[in-house]
Design goal:
Length: about 170
Amino acid sequence: MTADEGVTLLELMVTLAILLILASVALPMVKMNAKRTRELELRQQLRTVRQAIDQFHLDWNRTGNQLVGDLCKANQLTCTDVSDDFGYPKDLDTLLEVKLSGALAQASKLDIKRYLRQIPIDPMTQSRDWAKRCYRDDPDVSSWCGDDVYDIHTTSEETGLDGTPYNTW
């Protein structure tokens, strides 16, 4: 290879310019894909917990002192301990483990009912601290009444790719 066969400065500059243009196009796409992945995780976590809350409500439903749900009828003492007057769990930890009693527990040989294996991590805040809403709360309330868990949402103040705040999902 002789000295005449080397790369000229102009060729090197053109090559670097092309690489910079490609990198400037690719970087925003990578950031957007990472955000989209976190949004998908958030939707999945919300769906999982909301399904667990709905299943708990079916099992432990009550209206004041009137027992409606099958597990609530079979476990009257436990029912008032784990659910509020509307049949929703008193806190998220209740979804992890409910101790059963009565004839149903003896017949099925199960003494624990689980709705979630663990409280999921909020992908937006990377914590297990979710904002909660009570059954009696308005949809846009910013504080939890502390009576029951009717719904959850993220505490993140960020906005999604669709323009809506994550904490309204």
